[in-house]
Automatic annotation (TrEMBL):
Active site annotation, chain numbering: 298 (charge relay system), 302 (charge relay system), 510 (charge relay system)
One GO CC annotation: extracellular region
Gene Ontology molecular-function annotations: metal ion binding; serine-type endopeptidase activity; tripeptidyl-peptidase activity
Keywords assigned: Calcium, Glycoprotein, Hydrolase, Metal-binding, Protease, Secreted, Serine protease, Signal, Virulence, Zymogen
Cofactor info, note text: Binds 1 Ca(2+) ion per subunit.
Cofactor: Ca(2+)
Domain of life where this protein originates: Eukaryota
Pfam families xref list: Pro-kuma_activ
Organism: Boletus reticuloceps
Subcellular location(s) per record: Secreted, Extracellular space
Protein's recorded name: tripeptidyl-peptidase II
Upper lineage: Eukaryota, Fungi, Dikarya, Basidiomycota, Agaricomycotina
């Protein structure tokens, strides 16, 4: 997002809407009320600026999706022939007629081209308008809503309308009905203050890892970079600094990766990487506060493990703003928490992209409006079509979603709608069929981590690539037809990181995501060095052949919502997916694909 986007002047809120006054309005989206935890207070100040993002209909998405299925299917002749930025954008673009109708509507309020920001594919239009004007345009009333636990305040509404003739051209407009609270899985509740140290570890000698090779006994207590390479059978694999392969971490909110901590971590866990650096990319005003006090646990964990494991692969850290810094006298942020769309807007506009990207942020699926989840999911598909492997942590609340396991009391597992029915809580983006979702394990031999979120989407139906595998699990349970997750898993307990100059242990699928992504990046490294395209969207390969190179996790379960959750079992399960990496075997299969 260009910060130069002009705010449309307040006075213009009183211009006539021209002939649009005569076209009947129809409700575009509405929700019963704010999700649990949000309380409505005063009407929003009329002159408060809102940055409205308008998603235009993408008539060619089904074609884009067909390309994705072909390009990421090893059995297809077009496997790996990824689309360019231009080709992808052409398939994301709205119909010219759509642009015309929407421009005309905006223009009827005096909002001309100079006040518009358009995404690279022209599929999003962003305007900055005062609440008073947004209320006229959307025939609604905005209020201030406050979150009871966090005290966070946002400007939202529970329903909005558009002229009838716009409905087929506009997919959604936000911020309106979206109350999601995107957050890193690693909350302070997971924080172990005990300082870990390998040297004081009581365990010496070796034990046998899942691949049958020796692993330091200390790895059954504390996970380091060496441990992950040993456990997942990648000791001695060297990546290239210059073959064009890259890895990236996507971070949101005020999560800063502290460079001093990173260097200290490198000294401890990968001295070869000491002194190396990564590229920092700010999106939508994302900041990079290098004060020790501002270090983020999530950002430190992600950069330390992903960059440490894959060094010397060139690395990027995306910092996407979206919840502006708290300014006491201005308590209402101008934007909502919808940074995925902003992040996608940026990355999809780039000519060259990192081949592997890990994200450890998410929310409960039901708090993300279906229209927004679907649209963002389509953006992930577009990245897949361009050859990017997207990896997300599955969540840390067991079957109770993103809540930390400690908070997952049975009282929380209800649907947000009028039915208030008891249910497990799937997470987004893990439940999007175009990303790879990573659950968590612990110990050696590996067992499912009890916080590992998994289950079934209530939004997305099951993609074909899951049918064979997932049905096997469902045969013994009630059969369903929805997208299942996670896809895979990795160690997720007692990761030894450096935070504000001290060694700490941390846990969560936040650990598993950068860990799994690092091995994917190494596979991409090998393929690129051999002159082959990267793996791109991984799931078709994983479910069809790759699973044979994963360690099947068959012990453990993911309790939550007052239940024992699901059981890990032979084959795919909604706790650990298809299993954890055996890099040497994966490499063999990846080179044969
Ligand atoms: C985590 O570390 C604690 C001690 O710091 C140890 O008791 C526990 O077994 C470890 N858990 C795992 C899963 O490694
Ligand atoms: C990887 O690099 C290390 C250090 O430079 C070297 O000792 C080792 O032989 C390399 N391994 C392979 C498989 O090339
Ligand atoms: C590493 O990169 C960050 C972000 O671009 C920058 O702030 C920092 O100064 C760099 N550190 C070194 C040692 O070059
Ligand atoms: C950076 O973070 C520190 C600690 O939270 C804070 O005191 C400082 O004001 C921040 N700096 C900027 C430029 O935001
Ligand atoms: C749960 O919370 C309690 C109290 O804050 C804490 O002592 C305990 O370690 C937490 N358990 C886990 C698994 O995080
Ligand atoms: C939903 O149902 C539960 C259990 O019956 C009840 O405790 C809770 O208050 C209900 N929530 C709402 C918003 O009605
Ligand atoms: C790893 O630790 C777990 C939990 O303490 C234990 O059950 C298991 O036997 C240990 N593994 C090995 C190989 O010693
Ligand atoms: C896969 O399963 C889904 C849900 O049951 C179904 O809609 C779809 O047609 C199935 N696909 C194939 C290829 O069987
Ligand atoms: C999970 O395993 C436990 C213990 O073996 C068993 O009692 C339970 O019925 C299983 N749950 C499901 C849903 O299969």
């Amino acid at each position: 997002m260009h910060m130069s986007l002009l705010a449309f002047p307040f006075a213009a809120a009183f211009v006539s809407a021209g002939h649009y006054r005569d076209i009947p309005r129809k409700i575009k989206e509405s929700i019963q009320g704010p999700p649990r935890g949000w309380l409505r207070s005063d009407p929003a100040p009329p002159d408060r600026l809102l940055e409205l993002k308008i998603a235009l209909t993408q008539p060619h998405f089904p074609i884009l999706e067909k390309h994705l299925w072909a390009l990421s299917n090893p059995k297809h002749e077009r496997y790996g022939a990824y689309l360019s930025k231009e080709e992808t954008e052409a398939l994301m673009a709205p119909h010219p007629g759509t642009l015309e109708v929407v421009d005309e509507w905006l223009s009827s309020y005096g909002i001309e081209e100079e006040y518009l920001y358009r995404s690279s594919a022209q599929d999003w239009v962003t305007i900055r308008v005062p609440v008073a004007l947004a209320e006229k345009m959307l025939d609604t009333k905005y209020h201030i809503y406050t979150h009871s636990d966090s005290g966070e305040s946002i400007v939202r509404t529970t329903s909005y309308s558009l002229p009838e003739n716009l409905h087929e051209h506009v997919e959604l407009i936000q911020p309106t009905t979206m109350f999601t609270r995107l957050r890193p899985f690693r909350s302070t509740l997971h924080w172990s203050t005990s300082v870990s140290s390998r040297s004081t570890s009581p365990s010496t000698g070796t034990i046998t890892g899942p691949a049958g090779n020796p692993v330091d006994a200390s790895c059954n207590i504390t996970i380091t970079i060496d441990c992950l390479r040993q456990i997942y059978n990648a000791v001695g694999y060297n990546t290239s600094a210059t073959n064009g392969n890259q890895i990236a971490i996507a971070s949101y909110l005020e999560e800063y990766a502290n460079n001093q901590d990173l260097q200290q971590f490198f000294q401890l866990e990968n001295p070869m990487a000491y002194g190396s650096n990564y590229t920092f990319v700010s999106i939508n005003g994302g900041l990079n506060n290098q004060s020790y006090a501002a270090a983020g646990i999530e950002a430190n964990l992600d950069t330390q493990f992903a960059f440490g494991l894959t060094y010397p692969t060139p690395a990027t850290f995306y910092s996407t703003g979206g919840r502006p810094p708290y300014i006491p006298e201005v308590q209402l942020p101008e934007n909502g928490n919808e940074p995925y769309a902003k992040w996608l807007d940026y990355v999809l506009s780039q000519e060259y992209l990192p081949q592997t990207i890990s994200t450890s942020f998410a929310d409960d699926e039901q708090t993300v409006p279906y229209s927004y989840a679907k649209r963002v999911c389509c953006g992930f598909a577009a990245l897949g079509a361009r050859g990017v492997s997207l990896v997300f942590g599955s969540g840390d609340g067991g079957v109770a979603g993103t809540k930390s396991h400690n908070e997952s009391d049975p009282g929380q597992c209800f649907s947000n709608d009028a039915t208030n029915k008891t249910m497990f809580i799937p997470t987004f983006p893990s439940a999007c069929p175009y990303v790879t979702s990573v659950g968590g394990t612990n110990y050696i031999p590996e067992t499912a981590a009890l916080f590992s979120t998994g289950g079934f989407s209530n939004y997305f139906s099951r993609p074909d690539y899951q049918n064979k595998t997932v049905t096997k699990y469902l045969e013994t349970l009630a059969p369903g037809t929805m997208m299942a997750f996670p896809d895979v898993a990795a160690q997720a307990f007692n990761f030894s990181i450096v935070y504000q100059g001290q060694q700490h242990n941390t846990y969560g699928t936040s650990c598993a995501s950068p860990a799994f992504a690092s091995f994917v990046s190494m596979l991409n490294d090998a393929r690129i060095s051999a002159g082959r395209p990267p793996l791109g969207f991984l799931n078709q390969w994983l479910y069809e052949t790759g699973y044979a190179a994963l360690n099947d996790i068959t012990v453990g379960n993911n309790p939550g919502c007052g239940t024992e959750g699901f059981n890990a079992t032979i084959g795919w399960d909604p706790v650990t997916g298809l299993g954890t990496p055996n890099f040497e075997k994966l490499l063999e299969l990846a080179m044969a694909a």
